[in-house]
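Reopening this one. Same input as before:
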Amino acid sequence: MKTMILTKEQCNVEPCVATIGFFDGVHRGHRHLIRQVVEAAKGEGKMSMVITFDRHPRQFLHPDTMPQMLNTPDERERLLAEEGVDICVILPFNNEIAALSAREFMSDVLVGRLNVRHLIIGYDHRFGRNRADGFEDYVRYGTELGMEVSQSDAFSLDAEGVSSSVIRRMISEGNVEGASLRLGYCYSITGKVVGGYQNGRKIGFPTANIKVEDSTKIIPQAGVYAVKVRSEAMQGAMSGMMNIGKRPTFGGESTSLEINIFGFDGDLYGSVLSVMFVRKMRDERRFGTEAELIEQLTRDREEAERILDDC
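Same output, byte for byte:
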């Protein structure tokens, strides 16, 4: 996949079939749409194109209501590339783009600079200043501009549907299984191992403390999770359990992310870990004694191993 950051000059690309969106999560609904773009492009003998933005539009327009993200920019680009798209165009979302009406955007950007001949719109997607226009308007503008406009059918899963906002809510509630079902892959975070409190090592459950690299990335609800872990220091994915919370048994006040990796005894300090969430096992809670905590952690590990054996 070729990635381009759009400048004010025409990109001089070949005629293409395209879609547009932010695609946070690149979830199953997004991939359903993108595959239609790829198939249509092959059938029409054109290039396939995904048009996205360098930031969530809300981050620019309404920063106070900016949601946490499911993907970092690099993760999003990698996931888009896996769908076999020929070109990914990244538009800087700025005053110029925000001020364009839907017709101006279609005329100036899609037709004038990107040579889009066929635009496939997500079934519920709107674009342009204030998102004032709808699909019938896009079709009319496309006819005037010599560009076919069609609409993707909806991707159906269950009553809750598949959308980035639904997935964010599920992760914030600890329902990582429901989120992963909609994403089509396990939700993950990536971070560097930093110095910790050493409490886990003292009781026989050594943990690596993770500092998430991207502050916009959504962190699952506090609790204990069965997880898979990857790192350059490991050969393949390893099983583990992660605690997200304030360590109430030890009087913690700030939220930490601590992972106990089963069967790994190496030094991970400074390493970058990718943690894939499989299932939430329980809420975080305070234990009256260290022995009670050790007993619970032993049960947690046994449960996590049963869960992860099936992965």
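So the earlier flakiness isn't reproducible anymore. For the record, Residues 290-309 form the longest helix (20 residues).
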